[in-house]
Specification:
Shape of chain A: flat
Number of helices of chain A: 3
CATH class of chain B: Mainly Alpha
Number of domains of chain A: 2
Order of helices and strands of chain B: HHHHHHHHHHHHHHHHHEHHEH
Helix content of chain A: over 70%
Strand content of chain B: under 5%
Largest sheet of chain A: none
Order of helices and strands of chain A: HHH
Distance between the termini of chain A: 48 Å
CATH topology of chain B: Cytochrome C Oxidase, Chain A
Distance between the termini of chain B: 17 Å
Helix content of chain B: 55-70%
Number of domains of chain B: 1
Oligomer: heterodimer
Strand order of the largest sheet of chain B: 1-2
Strand content of chain A: under 5%
Radius of gyration of chain B: 24 Å
Number of helices of chain B: 20
Structural class of chain A: mainly alpha
Largest interface: A-B, 13 and 18 residues
Number of strands of chain B: 2
Chain lengths: 110, 623
């Protein structure tokens, strides 16, 4: 993939570097995966604990946003090189969508 | 047409165009279809002006006037201006970045045919019980009350053609991101490519709100839902928001490529590089960005409240800043240049003050308090015609003249071109300048007639006279095209003599693979750099090799045709028993052909390098 494109001309160094990188990546993925399961459990607990909806709903939405970020950056490799254009369009789309929602919430419905 | 110098029968040529996936031929299709709808929309404009030439006119009835007015706006925006610009984008943008085609040639063809069938469907409403009559904005409170099927034609037709536009936009984005020639960095891309890029991004984000809005309105009208029905708890304002969240970026989708065309023409004929290239790029992106924050300025009088109005007013005025940057950059490009006043340059020079006037009235309209006075008067009509005709139509006419040799290999007549320009320029200002004052004197927009003795007679008559000048200009342009095509005097790579960008480095029209060898780009205005170093053409960036090309396909046509059939079924479902089966058959055609496309492997073909070498020997010209 993108992070494997290093080429020093020395095959042993390249492989060592790649192995190190891959091991690091694997560790990140396992940590993120654990965190995501933990956050999911927290979300269920928040609903099950019977707290006020004014706390639960924004809290779950926050957890969801964190989960999306984990998903994009650790599992879909958006932090790697070569993903600038998709990231740009993702965030632009997000911005346009959020402005629309903000406008609807503030000047149409309330 | 194609570079094989072989004669083809008429039927073979038609079949070639029905199945083509070549971006240059799709461009020609866009220009033909867009040109046709431009004439239709122009005729509608003439009917409007004839009706309003004298008070108490009965040239058309009030109901028919509403239909003509609605179809004029809808046709001109969706079926004329956008496709014509798409034509130029298709024809020129891949050449400017040194690509052999767009990223998805099949989708490119599909986008065209969807637009085409959507446009045909919309216009068939004239013959099938009446056209839509709720204005091009089709506000829900009006359109839900409209009887007959006019609005359904609008909804289904725009849904189909909108899908085509969205595909086209995504295709251009991927092409520009992925298919630039070696050395063509983002900051070396010509301005027309940059504006295509930003306009395509706007399409990507602006068309989904329209799609959603149209779907909701379609459900309300055809399937009994209540999204916009206030009596049943719906909210009619939501349509206005959805429409303008699309509608305002749509204006920039139109005008940014127009800016791009002028940013190509002005440096070529000033024989000087574009002044402030990086600020031009910055301004283009900023206009695209701000374009999404201003939609509610179309709705100041709806009653959004002073805070919302103030925010949108300030955001709107902010757009004047990047636009001003562009205006000054064009002026500074011409300043000190060795200017050649060719026909495209005439349009470019006339565009600057004309568009500027539209911009100034735009800032006037942006002040929310003053807008209560201007809203829904002819002042607004004058404003947006100054922006769209003075900006976009001038650019289309200029682009037609400028790129005609590159697309068809023959030059339009300059004298006739200048006659077209002067007729159009005079007619345009005659028609629309007075409309500012008509608006300030209290003439509401969209009225079908007015009474005597209200001080509106002279202004309206002047306006109608101007419209005839523009019609005459169009006739001269058509004559010019016919004469040029019949004479068919072939031209070389760089017929204007001062081409700066890659498209002028290859034959006119280009061979179907565009570049025999991809060119090496060494800076902004790559061909100009090579010329200044005394070279004849571009340095190749790769050895001569086999070129992989896509196969032609009839499937895009069939997919679009299926949706066209299904639209009739959806519309007549409640009136006739055959509606539902036709809907199902249409969708079956579409999904069946999509399935066929998915299961059938089509690997395209290769042009072998031996053939490329042979062509070199025959012509003695190096691409």
């Amino acid at each position: 993939m993108e992070n494997n494109q290093t080429n020093t001309g020395n095959a042993t160094v390249d492989i060592a570097y790649r192995r190190k990188k891959n091991a690091e990546e694997m560790r990140h993925q396992v940590i993120t995966f654990t965190l995501m399961i933990f956050l999911t459990i927290v979300a269920f607990v928040a609903v099950g604990a019977g707290m006020s909806g004014w706390f639960t709903v924004p809290f779950i939405l926050l957890l969801a946003a964190v989960q999306v970020a984990f998903q994009l950056y650790y599992f879909m490799h958006m932090s790697h090189k070569g993903h600038e254009a998709p990231a740009l369009f993702l965030y632009s789309g997000l911005l346009v969508g959020l402005i629309t929602i903000l406008a609807f919430v503030t000047i149409v419905w309330w | 047409m194609s570079t094989y110098a072989q004669k083809k029968g008429f039927g073979a040529t038609v079949w070639d165009y029905l199945t083509t996936v070549d971006h240059k031929k799709i461009a020609v299709l866009y220009l033909i279809a867009g040109g046709f709808f431009f004439v239709v929309g122009g005729l509608e404009a003439m009917f409007i002006r004839i009706q309003l030439a004298v008070p108490n006119s009965d040239f058309v009835s009030a109901g028919l006037y509403n239909q003509i007015l609605t179809m004029h706006g809808t046709t001109m925006i969706f079926l004329a201006a956008m496709p014509l610009l798409f034509g130029f984008m298709n024809a020129i943008m891949p050449l400017q970045i040194g690509a052999r085609d767009v990223a998805f040639p099949f989708i490119n063809a599909l986008g065209f045919w969807l637009f085409f069938f959507g446009g045909v469907f919309l216009n068939l409403s004239w013959f099938l019980g009446g056209a839509p009559d709720a204005g091009w904005t089709s506000y829900a409170s009006l359109s839900l009350a409209s009887e007959g099927h006019g609005i359904d034609f609008y909804l289904l037709g725009l849904q189909i053609s909108g899908a085509g536009t969205l595909m086209g936009g995504i295709n251009f984005l991927v092409t520009i991101i992925n298919m630039r020639a070696p050395g063509m960095t983002y900051m070396r891309m010509p301005l027309f490519t940059w504006t295509t890029f930003v306009a395509s991004a706007l399409i990507l984000f602006a068309f989904p709100p329209l799609t959603v809005g149209i779907f909701l309105l379609m459900f309300d009208r055809l399937f009994g839902s209540n999204f916009f029905v206030t009596a049943a708890g719906g909210n009619t304002i939501i349509w206005e928001h959805l429409f303008w969240i699309f509608g305002h970026p749509e204006v920039y989708i139109l005008v940014l490529p127009a800016f791009g065309i002028f940013s190509e023409i002005i440096p070529v004929f000033s024989r000087k590089r574009l002044f402030g290239y990086s600020s031009m790029v910055f301004a283009t992106v900023l206009i695209g960005f701000l374009g999404f924050m201003v939609w509610a300025h179309h709705m100041f009088t709806v009653g959004l409240g002073p805070i919302a109005n103030a925010i949108f007013a300030v955001a709107t005025m902010a757009i004047a800043v990047p636009t001003g940057i562009k205006i000054f950059n064009w002026l500074f490009t011409m300043w000190g240049g060795s200017i050649k006043f060719t026909t495209p340059m005439h349009y470019a020079v006339a565009f600057i003050p004309s568009f500027l006037m539209g911009g100034v009235t735009g800032v006037m309209l942006a002040s929310a308090a003053a807008d209560y006075q201007y809203h829904d008067t002819y002042f607004v009509v004058a404003h947006f015609h100054y922006v769209i005709v003075g900006g976009v139509v001038f650019a289309i006419l200029a682009g037609t003249t400028f790129y005609w040799p590159k697309m068809f290999g023959t030059m339009l007549n300059e004298t006739l071109g200048k006659i077209t320009f002067w007729l159009f320029f005079i007619g345009f200002h005659l028609t629309f300048f007075i409309q500012h004052f008509l608006g300030l004197w209290g003439m509401p927009r969209r009225i079908f007639t007015f009474l005597e003795g209200q001080g509106l007679e002279t202004g309206n008559f002047v306006s109608t006279v101007g419209a005839f000048f523009m019609a005459a200009a169009t006739v001269v342009l058509v004559i010019n095209i016919i004469i040029t095509t019949v004479k068919n005097e072939r031209v070389g790579n760089d017929p204007w003599g001062d081409g700066r960008t890659l498209e002028w480095a290859i034959p006119s029209p280009p061979p179907f693979y565009n570049f025999k060898q991809l060119p090496l780009v060494r800076g902004l205005d790559p061909l100009w750099i090579e010329k200044m170093e005394g070279k004849k053409g571009m340095t190749p960036a790769e050895p001569l090799g086999d070129i992989h090309m896509p196969n032609a396909s009839f499937i895009p046509f069939v997919i679009s045709f299926g949706l066209f059939v299904a639209a009739f079924g959806a519309m007549y479902r409640l009136d006739y028993g055959w509606g539902l089966p036709v809907l199902i058959i249409g969708l079956a055609i579409t999904f069946g052909s999509m399935f066929l496309r998915s299961v059938k492997d089509d690997h395209g073909f290769h042009i072998h390098k031996e053939e490329l070498i042979d062509e070199d020997d025959n012509k003695g010209v190096k691409a």
